[in-house]
Design brief:
The protein is an all-alpha fold and 396 residues long. 57% of the residues lie in helices and 2% in strands. The protein has 15 helices and four strands. The strands form two sheets. A two-stranded antiparallel ribbon has the order 1-2. Strands 3-4 form a two-stranded antiparallel sheet. A hairpin with a 4-residue loop joins strand 3 and strand 4. Helix 3 runs antiparallel to helix 15, helix 7 packs parallel to helix 9 and helix 8 packs across helix 9. The longest helix has 22 residues. The radius of gyration is 21 Å and the shape is globular. The two termini are 37 Å apart.
Amino acid sequence: MDYMKKILLFVFAVLLCIPSWVAGQNGRDREFWKQAAEGMSRALVKHFWGASFEGYPNRYYFNYKSDMADMTTAHYWPQAHAMDIIVDAYMRTGNQDYFDLYPLWWKGAPRFNFAGNARRPWWNPYVDDMEWMVLAQLRMYETARNEEYFTRGKQIYNDWIWTTWGPDNEAPWYGGITWKTDVEKTKNACSNGPAAIIAARIYNLYDSAGIKGGKPREEYLTEARKIYAWLRDNLYDPESGAVRDNMNSRGNISRAVYTYNSGTFIGAAVELYGITGEKQYLAEAVNAANYVIDKMSTNEGGVLSDATGGDGGLFHGIFFRYFVKLINEKDLDRKTMVKFKDYLTRLANVMYDEGINKEYMLYGGSWHNPVVSSSGVGLTPHLTGCMLMEAMSVIE
């Protein structure tokens, strides 16, 4: 009898420890989310990849709207995030079809770059746009080990991104990565968060890439710390967790808060925590994530705002990409981990049940109203949908 009691007590204890997020998935396990992610990634290639359409065999570029509804090419930065989804899909499946897009996109993205030229095909006046391109190429390198991707990403960072720092003694900013090079200077969260992530990732990849000469490895970590510290000290509110948008030329801080800025602040903090083990980084990432959950998720069903197109269509997706890395951080305390998983799962369920058109597997940016046609869907909101499904596929 004592033996049976021990078994029952053990079973009861295990049941008590099952996270609430598991019960909240409506019976949906990781395999379900992988299938959803696969459907949306296939839709991305079918409806947005330019070379998918008859008569455009060399259009190695993601169209700005589905089914050729908008084929303009003045949309540089979403290209990087579309390629990030292809990398996600390849990592998830190992499917050669996804891998085969790597070299094609790598040729197409600079060819269609509206600001590029023969001497600087990847250059763009928007520093953050170049940063997204670098982040995509570093991930391509990690999964393909093609040194061209790493070398180009490192070159863009060294020559065109880090060079916009500061200077340290320049008022009113005293540091910071510049947002755009051809307008009155501002220092934005969207240019500093990604830059810190890039520097940290180059530091991590430095030895595997076999770098000979040039900037020493430790300098990249120094730069990552420096960029993050500027972002934290100037645009992050430690009391609320809000990450403000920018500091303008007069030193005034914008009050605007956007999810993608919170996301890259979290991403940079997680990268630096992984390298240094310093608890402050983890605590600041948690604080920024709680602000998004507690203060910004006020739409029906406790989800974020609708974002149906334009640059804003991508903001939530970038948050999801880096938020899931925080969720998977093994040193996250259990209560916070459960809260974060509950939150992301709630969003994924609402999006899948009410926001995604299941016939086409397209997402138009409205949580509760799916698109009615496969034509004219914005690239940016569909990428956000892909990022949420991919995030659910990798939660540990």
